């Protein structure tokens, strides 16, 4: 040992290991490093920019009849909300709203079921899995408008009528399914294969092990897929534009409103759709928390 | 025709995952009904694969697995009437203790009241009654293990398979759970097959210890047989507690032979079961570490000892009831003596002391 | 232990295909077929009134590739893409870094993370419109600047300009960077950072040698999202530039509006090729399937 040390040229030692520089980080004494304050500021600004504009329109939607598109507030009333659902010039808000919710529900159900099955399939390698995977990625990154147009033309060529519950449904699925499957990959990575094996060992069939073990264990993740499916569909625009046929979905209706409505009705619509979104988010997060809670704590003693 | 017997026979069982190398390579073994059998070997020796093939989670590439007189290859785990206790238990995280234990009855379509009653009876047997409504995450390691055991046992399997059941526990709990396993096995009266890499666990529990290396069985026998009479160098070194020496046979005389070694007069070894030993053969012998006595040079050897190997003390480790003395007796190989504490401290050695290592001639064991 | 697909038994292949067959049954008619239709249409001739004449001509490609407008559109699209990518990456990286390495309570970190993701679940169009009361000619920012006396006349570049387009993109898409980067950063073992500090690394060294390399997959994934969305967008450009700017897809939209299907299709095919090239270049650096399933 000592022989090794004396053999080592001394100069090398001092060169290869420089003394710690002043840049080196001192142990934390409980205080925050300067980077914390810089990044905290950046973070706050980001959140402010994220929410600020949205809150502006929520506030402005509660003006009275004199209201305009910019501050300052002119009075307070629900005038523009009433206006939104009664005036003809603002378009068919109620009908499109109805259609969008229905469509989103259908899309969500299909997305959850299909991506759950695909997630099961992708757990093991099979011949051609990479091709299917890349087809999915392609569907995710392809320009929505182009896909929508292709779908529209296809329906036209086949002599089918484009409508929100056929062509637009398919076009939206080509967007929500890849998302759903990707989320499902992340969800299923948390499922230990050995639980399934234990279920088989105890006599469960394939379907029983899915129903009694897999689905309940993965429930929080499946709720996340529901959230994705619903909101991605509810907000989908580019792919629906050429495929929805004669009756608009809500985002299409908003789009046509941005072109010809210049009253706070637009903001009122923003407020209403956001409230819907928040109800869906709240219900989803709430049920995730509920499931976790039921599992995590309780029954002590 | 179903049999309740849990005797197992493995005949020429092979398993390969990639079609090239055999992870399990031609294993033949008979395990009696109601035996406690431990498979032991280093990781990757194929012991877990054998367990999974008996359970029905893998099928052998070749060979037969016979349980109670019935070849079970190709049958589903349930049809084999085996049950597995998984490493780290695989308890269902969303089900309570009671629901976990009742799971097998639930999938068999038993009514809720019936299955919960059966589960409660089992819960009582493993002394978990006050924890019946808890989820696995709220239990200690030992409690989880008891749940896993109860869940596996509730279907009244004829064979219970345990994959490293004690590895997730700390030392103290492990000793405690070892007794619990043995008690459960006697109570249920069924065959237990237990995979482990801990020698102590295997010899403490098993009626039948199976030592494995690279997919093959090296030795199978009663715990004492395997520990005290290892077949070969591998088993002797793996099971521990033995010094292994090798050398050439100098002469063969009647019931013993002499091994040429550093010892002035060679090492005299009884022939025992081995008969075909010729002068010039290279032979391994084993001497138990607790059979080795150390005497100061010039002192008389204890009665019955003929071998004397002069050595230097390299290191000393105090182990409580004995003292582990490491010696340079054999070049390039370790040679250790376990000296009882009282003997050692009557005349303690220090590192660097020269001693003579010796043992009763009859205790040396020739290896294959 | 995982056998490669070539050695999997036929039964496993069949089971795999059964599970993914619903996915395939949706993607073939609604992704593969429409793309093929567009490809086919790009080779057709047009009668100028919206009618398509089946045939095979490269005229549309020649027209698109010779048009000076094409170059302009691509330059504009690339400009928007690069600017948006830089801003979303920088903001997304540091926001994720802050959440993972600076927020000490894990519960708080998750709470703040959710705070960032909530707007993602609300309507994009509405979020875009919401810039009007801020950036407009009489909007809050102009009012504030006038009030402070910084400017004399309201700034018109704020809304309906390229600046507004980039602001709207960054506003909508930063979340697509934060989520994957946060995910990969959260998996970095904090002990690695401590080991680096032990070895005398500065903050910059830690960032450069540990955090960035280990977040690479998150960055790649976020980049795929941001790049493909910006390159495929027409809506933000149209609304936020007030019609003043155009991108490849917004021009495509105009072409479709005047029933110029073949040229529109040709430019769409070219754009898709560019997009595929960019995405597969990124995919080459990271196996996202492995990454997500980790």
Q: What is the number of E strands of chain A? A: 0
Mean pLDDT of chain C: 83
Biggest pleated-sheet summary of chain C: 2 strands, antiparallel
Q: Which parts of chain C are unreliable, with pLDDT below 50 for 5 consecutive residues or more?
A: 1-6
Please state how the strands of the largest beta sheet of chain C are arranged side by side. 1-2
Which pair has the most extensive contact?
A: A-C, 97 and 97 residues
Strand content of chain C: under 5%
Computed Rg of chain C: 24 Å
How would you portray this structure in words?
The complex is a heterotrimer of chains A (301), B (368) and C (294). Helix content of chain A is 70%, strand content 0%. Chain A is built from 13 helices and no strands. Chain B is elongated. Chain B is 26% helix and 31% strand. In chain B, the strands form four sheets. In chain B, strands 6-7-8-3-9-10 form a six-stranded mixed sheet, with helices on both faces. A five-stranded antiparallel sheet of chain B has the order 13-12-11-14-20. With 294 residues, chain C is mainly α. Helices cover 74% and strands 1% of the residues of chain C. The longest helix of chain C is centred in the first third of the chain and has 35 residues, at 68-102. Mean pLDDT of chain C is 83; it is low at 1-6. The chains are: A mainly alpha (301), B alpha+beta (368), C mainly alpha (294). At the A-C interface, helix 3, helix 5, helix 6, helix 7 and helix 8 of A face helix 1, helix 3, helix 4, helix 5 and helix 6 of C.
